[in-house]
From TrEMBL:
GO terms for biological process: cell division; cell wall organization; response to antibiotic. This is Cell division protein FtsI/penicillin-binding protein 2. Gene3D superfamilies: DD-peptidase/beta-lactamase superfamily, Penicillin-binding protein 2a (Domain 2), Penicillin-binding protein 2a, domain 3. Pfam families: MecA_N, PBP_dimer, Transpeptidase. It comes from Yimella lutea. Keywords: Cell cycle, Cell division, Membrane. Belongs to the transpeptidase family. Residues 156-307 form the Penicillin-binding protein dimerisation domain. It is found in: Membrane. Residues 39-147 form the NTF2-like N-terminal transpeptidase domain. GO terms for molecular function: penicillin binding; peptidoglycan L,D-transpeptidase activity.
Length: 636
């Protein structure tokens, strides 16, 4: 054999050997890949079963699938039924054992995501791979065997409504929600709860719930602490009765500041539909008044803490609640209380309001309503202001040159384009000075004096006091009404508006602001909500000092010798005032709105008593309320 042949043979032999070795290497790699794939598939199957909540479909070593699934349910029960996303990373295999990491993202209460990495071990048992169940939990590295997640929800405290100098207006206090569990309640316990609470229909609701198999609790009533303690002995031991204590902002009593401040209660279906990202069933939120308008400020952000049952102090996820922010206002509890008590003297069912304003700042100290439910009148009401508007008319007359000492006749009646204008009580003063006409609220003197007014004269004069402006931004209350003084449509329109009737409208807040402007000597928009800060220009707009001084004197004369003598001599110092009576005839009924506006010291005020019988007026109906208000305030 030649050397070449030997070489060729040797080479051929080497090639065959190399080929055989390559086959063996390839075969070995194929087996390893199969093992990797099988182990990885077991890990992936476990993760998928987790996200689907079908843990009985995964493979395990050391426990049965059904037992693992039950352990999963009990361990994670408090995490809720939110979406769960899982993935596998960090896979490694060494022989018949492997490790991997399950990445978990669980959507929990409030839409937050609880994420963690959970190492797992896998083992080949027979022909299959499974997740190893050892002496720790399969579900989180910090859970022990037979441990569980514990979820603590903290709703947080709702922001409070605060007043002047941070005074308490609506502060967090204990309330008690009473409900019935229909699966445990009996007809006798429902009857007894009806008797204790005065809430009817509970037996029928329990009967219906049992018939339908409903397990939903039946809401009954919410009590303040004192009210609950009076009735607790008749509630606590009743079958099916549930008592839940929580904190909620409350005023000093049920009627304080209503309906301006508003109420807090369970979110309504309308709120859930309109803003599902903010509200959820079972929440408590503002349902009316300032509580509703500023719910976004006052509403707390719920807190959530997830821990292990075995280590409650070790927080696995979450953060504490963020309490709602306080709402700052200018309200003064003493002034508000005096205003509300003054309105208590009105006959039951009467409608009215008292607004008090701090003269230096324009801050609304009180906004009291009667009745204390239903419509808000003090800040948003729209009424003819009657002769309180003569403050504005007088300002324009004096601006045009009329002297308070000028004789201006006050006949019983005068006619403008054939329409008769009379004095409220049909009186005649003869030929008095204009200051006396003002003090005795002589309609005919004002009507005759303003005959030369142009179409926009009263409108422009009223604008100096803020009429016609958008006060909702400066006051901070939706619908805060500054009043309306349109341009005159002719002589009779001018005559009617001169005495605060016709097409002129104003809120009690606006009339109190007019009085405050005269007392201050400048116009400053009223304000009620101070935090969050409101918009609007609050730079004082000076009024004519000479004219203001004359009107002050005339308003003082109204108290000492005019239509507002009922407020003379009240404690607290001199009172300046102007009465008003806006007569109307609607639906075959004659009536009037009675007014009195003025100030004492640094407190300007307006009193409205609406829809009084014909013949009643500001000096006889509103003045007594003002007298009571000032007297109560002086004694507070």
């Amino acid at each position: 054999m030649s050397a070449r042949t030997v070489l060729a043979t040797t080479t051929a032999g080497l090639m065959i050997a190399a080929g055989a070795g390559g086959y063996m290497l390839w075969n070995e790699r194929s087996e390893q890949q199969e093992l990797d794939e099988a182990a990885r598939n077991a890990a992936t199957s476990f993760a998928s079963a987790w996200s689907d909540r079908t843990l009985d479909r995964a493979n395990y070593v050391g426990t049965e699938p059904a037992a693992a699934a039950e352990d999963f349910r009990t361990t994670t029960a408090q995490l809720g039924n939110g979406n769960v996303r899982t993935s596998i990373s960090g896979f490694e295999r060494n022989g018949n054992r492997a490790t991997a990491v399950v990445n978990v993202a669980w959507t929990v209460s409030g839409g937050r995501t609880f994420s963690w990495v959970n190492p797992i071990e896998l083992e080949k048992s027979g022909d299959s791979w499974g997740v190893v169940a050892n002496n720790r939990s399969l579900w989180h590295p910090k859970l022990q065997a037979n441990d569980a997640f514990v979820v603590d929800l903290d709703s947080g405290l709702r922001g409070e409504i605060r007043g002047r100098d941070n005074a308490a207006i609506m502060t967090n206090q204990s309330v008690y929600d009473i409900s019935l569990d229909p699966t445990k309640a009996t007809l006798d316990s429902a009857r007894r709860l009806e008797n204790t609470t005065g809430v009817g229909g509970l037996r029928a609701k329990v009967t219906a719930a049992k018939a339908s198999g409903s397990k939903s609790t039946i809401d009954v009533i919410t009590y303040r602490k004192d009210d609950y303690e009076e009735r607790s002995s008749g509630i606590r031991d009743l079958a099916g009765a549930i008592v839940r204590e929580r904190k909620q902002p409350l005023a000093a009593n049920r009627t304080f500041g209503q309906p301006l401040l508003g109420a807090v209660g369970p979110v309504t279906a309308e709120m859930l539909k309109k803003d599902p990202s903010t509200y959820r069933s079972g929440m408590f939120a503002g349902t009316s008044g300032l509580q509703r308008q500023y719910d976004g400020v006052l509403l707390p952000k719920a807190g959530l803490k997830i821990s292990a049952r075995s280590q409650p102090d070790a927080v696995l996820f979450g953060a504490g609640a963020q309490d709602g922010k306080n709402l700052g206002t200018t309200l003064d509890p003493k002034v508000q209380t005096a205003a509300e008590k003054a309105l208590d003297s009105l006959p039951e069912g009467s409608m009215g309001a008292v607004v008090a304003i701090d003269v230096p700042t324009g801050g609304i100290l009180a906004a009291a309503n009667a009745p204390t439910y239903g419509l808000e009148r003090a800040v948003t009401g729209r009424y003819s202001p009657g002769s309180t508007f003569k403050i504005v008319s007088a300002y324009e007359l004096l601006k045009k040159g009329l002297n308070p000492d000028t004789k201006v006749a006050c006949p019983q009646e005068t006619k403008i384009d054939g329409r008769a204008f009379r004095n409220f009580e049909g009186e005649t003063l003869g030929d008095p000075s204009f200051r006396d006409d003002f003090a005795h609220s002589c309609n005919t003197a004002f009507v005759n004096s303003t005959k030369p007014f142009g179409a926009s004269d009263l409108q422009q004069a009223a604008s100096l006091f803020g009429f016609g402006t958008d006060l909702s931004k400066s006051v901070g209350v939706n619908g805060a009404y500054s009043g309306s003084v349109p341009a005159s449509a002719g002589p009779t329109d001018t005559a009617a508006m001169t005495i605060g009737q016709g097409r002129i409208l104003a809120s009690p807040m606006m009339i109190a602001s007019v009085a405050a402007s005269i007392a201050r000597g400048s116009y400053v928009p009223p304000v009620l909500v101070t935090s969050p800060a409101q918009g609007g220009d609050r730079t004082p707009k000076p009024l004519d000092a000479g004219i203001v001084n004359s009107i002050r004197q005339m308003m003082r004369l109204t108290v000492t010798d005019g239509t507002a003598t009922l407020v003379e001599g009240v404690p607290g110092g001199e009172v300046h005032a102007k009465t008003g009576t806006a007569e109307f005839f609607e639906g075959g009924k004659a009536g009037a709105h009675a007014w009195l506006a003025g100030w004492q010291g640094n407190v300007a005020f307006a009193v409205l008593v609406a829809d009084v019988p014909a013949g009643k007026g500001g000096g006889t109906v509103a003045a007594p309320v003002a007298r009571d208000f000032l007297s109560l305030l002086a004694r507070s």
